[in-house]
Specification:
mainly alpha, single chain, 387 residues, globular
Length: 387
């Protein structure tokens, strides 16, 4: 296969694992309403948040892994391996979907009445479970907080031909992605949801971050090195991040809000997450370029024990993400039905992250054991040496 662009070096990029682990923790915390610890996640300090990071890294990782397979073993092999991964994600989604519905449905009927059913959009399941399950299997029905995996499945499922094209014309593919993003926003394209409405994460818009991650992996960051290293970008990018921080903090702080003209503030509030507002894309791109500039791949600090829990969670991302969705509702239930006091908020958050991290370490150990060669119980004795 003729490749017109750069392939990333072999081996794990611990930066990806670190940020993906942090994203999983942040998504868990953000899914727990009225929780003091979700005040420290990225969504409170700028326009983009953990979902943007998750989708970007998913695109980066998909290219990082499957582009090399396509080059070394052929397009068919690479594409089938990619589709196999899509199937794995879909199976995980279905398993999580069923368990999540059972968890919420049982607790809603036993304790919460209509409160949890309304809050998590599962009334249809309680009244018509067969149809709701079917709509869930075809990704049209999604309870609250279960929107990311269906988006990931769709983007990964459509990615093989995109990746083939990107290996030959990466800049052109990125431009096509930008055009699709702009057209979808201009004409209101989205996919329908069940029973009403549209997808919370519009795939026609969010594909841009996924493709941007792929472009980044296949040489985009290398091509952009002169721009990333320039003083102009340093000052302009820092100014934009500070502006995003001020506008975001203006929401919870009326004194700061009074300093921003309404004509400006209204452009960014409410933050358009469904259709991935352009200011979110720019905000995330600036952060990504700053990471390349200030956090090199070979930074020895990534091997510090301090970062190990987040890195392991990033390496076992699918299992950790699914566990986080399940645990976030359990934590919310405890805060509503047991106690919403500050110590309890901290406790359920710490216990949830601890459980996710414990699962990640277990899965990492289990995979190592699966790959390890078994040691014979009774190794054969050496034959006596001949005289």
């Amino acid at each position: 296969m003729v490749v017109a662009h750069y392939l990333p070096p072999k081996g794990r990029d611990l930066r990806l694992d670190l940020f993906r682990g942090i994203a999983n923790w942040a998504i868990f915390l953000d899914h727990i309403p009225n929780n003091v610890l979700n005040l420290v996640t990225g969504r409170n300090f700028g326009f983009s948040d953990a979902a943007d990071l998750f989708i970007f890294i998913s695109g980066y990782t998909a290219s990082f892994v499957y582009a090399r397979i396509m080059v070394e073993r052929g397009v068919i092999v690479g594409s089938t391996r990619l589709i196999k991964r899509v199937w794995t994600i879909y199976v995980a989604h279905v398993l999580l979907f069923v368990i999540y519905l059972a968890e919420i449905g049982y607790l809603a009927q036993k304790y919460g009445g209509d409160q949890f059913a309304d809050e998590f959009n599962i009334h249809g399941f309680l009244t018509n479970p067969a149809l709701t399950l079917y709509e869930g299997l075809i990704l049209r029905f999604k309870p609250v907080n279960m929107d990311v995996l269906p988006l990931y499945i769709v983007l990964m499922g459509l990615f093989p031909p995109v990746l083939v094209a990107m290996l030959k014309r990466p800049n052109m593919v990125l431009c096509g992605s930008i055009v699709l993003y702009l057209v979808a926003r201009a004409f209101g394209w989205n996919l329908p949801a069940y029973p009403v409405g549209h997808w919370y994460f519009n795939p026609f818009a969010w594909q841009l971050l996924f493709v941007f991650g792929a472009w980044f992996a296949l040489g985009g960051s290398v091509e952009s090195t002169p721009f990333i290293g320039s003083r102009a970008f340093l000052f302009a990018g820092a100014a934009y991040l500070i502006f995003a921080l001020v506008v975001t903090l203006a929401g919870p702080f009326p004194e700061l809000r009074s300093l921003i003209p309404n004509s400006i503030y209204s452009l960014f509030s409410p933050n358009d997450k469904t259709n991935l507002a352009l200011y979110r894309v720019i905000h995330f791109a600036v952060i990504a370029f700053f990471v390349v500039r200030f956090l090199p791949r070979d930074w020895k600090g990534l091997e510090s024990p301090l970062f190990a829990p987040a890195i392991v969670c990033g390496q076992q991302s699918l299992e950790v993400f699914c566990a986080g969705i399940f645990l976030s509702f359990a934590a919310h239930f405890v805060l509503v039905e047991v106690s919403g006091a500050l110590p309890m908020q901290i406790l359920v958050s710490v216990v949830g992250i601890g459980a996710m991290t414990g699962l990640a370490y277990y899965r990492s150990w289990s995979k190592r054991m699966d790959k390890a060669k078994p040691t014979p119980a009774n190794p054969p004795k050496a034959a006596p040496a001949s005289v």
